[in-house]
Design brief:
Layout lengths: L2 H23 L12 H8 L1 H28 L2 E5 L5 E5 L1 H31 L3 H14 L3 H13 L3 H18 L2 H17 L3 H17 L3 H17 L3 H18 L2 H18 L1
Antiparallel strand pairs: 1-2
């Protein structure tokens, strides 16, 4: 007898014993017929013992059943009888899950290794190497994070088309995952590419979409950055009043949230706009 069959037998025996104890617990010593069976009458009179045995036998039956289920779920293969009576070994769902989990874990570790290498290159301004490693991470396991950082690295080495493609792929993934924060980041960065290429109307559209998202999710830093970038686009279009309006809005937010570096940058841009208006 194999282990599974033995466990089934044990669970059945203790389950039956728990049921009998429970049945006896429900009887009264005065129940008709018990006088003829002194042994049972004696047991019924000992209610505490019956309660104890019912609980113990029941718990043992449950424990053995759970053990059986664990053993069953742990199997990676099982025997299947084919239409001709042949015996074949087939994979189980639990076997698939084990294998998939192992493979996924290995992919995650590899993608993380490349992403970390990309971070090191990026921090040291080796943007070409960073883009290479972020791309390796993305190809191992596509993530929004890898697409975003790869796009930024490519942007810094003037690979605008490739950066646009990385951002667009990341944007699609962000929409699919309903990640509004990263959706706003991708849209804002796409706007920067358009702006650099002189496609100012497209840049405004993308930046304003990013602005709306950052406002909706309550991201003041993202909102202020978008306002700054929109102001720059208006400045490049020669629309100085609009540029100044957006820059002032950005300055107000930077002051409120305490971002001195960004505040210094936007105040410098405001000075440039005011000088151009004179």
């Amino acid at each position: 007898m194999n282990k599974k069959k033995a466990l089934i037998c044990v669970a059945s025996v203790f389950g039956a014993m728990a049921a009998v104890s429970g049945l006896l617990l429900g009887l009264s010593p005065s129940t008709e017929g018990l006088e003829a069976i002194p042994f049972l009458k004696n047991i019924v009179e000992k209610k505490l013992i019956l309660v104890f045995t019912t609980i113990i036998f029941g718990l043992i039956a449950v424990a053995v059943t759970l053990w059986y289920k664990l053993i069953k779920e742990d199997e990676t293969t099982k025997t299947f009888t084919g239409p001709g009576g042949e015996q074949v070994v087939v994979a189980t769902l639990s076997g698939f899950r084990k294998e998939a989990t192992k493979e996924a874990s290995e992919l995650i570790n590899e993608a993380e290794k490349y992403f970390e290498a990309g971070d090191i290159d990026f921090e040291n301004m080796r943007y070409k190497d960073a883009a290479f490693n972020y791309e390796k991470s993305m190809r191992t396991l596509p993530t929004m994070s890898a697409y975003l950082n790869m796009g930024i690295s490519l942007y810094y080495i003037s690979e605008f088309q490739k950066a646009f493609e990385a951002y667009s792929s990341g944007l699609a993934l962000a929409k699919k995952n309903q990640d509004m924060s990263l959706e706003g980041a991708f849209l804002g960065n796409i706007g920067l590419i358009y702006s650099t290429q002189g496609k100012l109307n497209e840049a405004l559209k993308s930046q304003k979409e990013a602005l709306e998202i950052h406002r909706n999710i309550g991201n003041p830093l993202g909102e202020a950055n978008d306002l700054t970038n929109i102001g720059i686009v208006y400045y490049n279009q020669g629309k100085l009043d609009e540029a100044l309006e957006y820059m002032n809005k950005a300055r107000t937010i930077f002051q409120r949230i305490g971002s001195p570096r960004e505040l210094q940058i936007v105040e410098g841009l405001i000075l440039d706009i005011n000088e151009s208006r004179q």
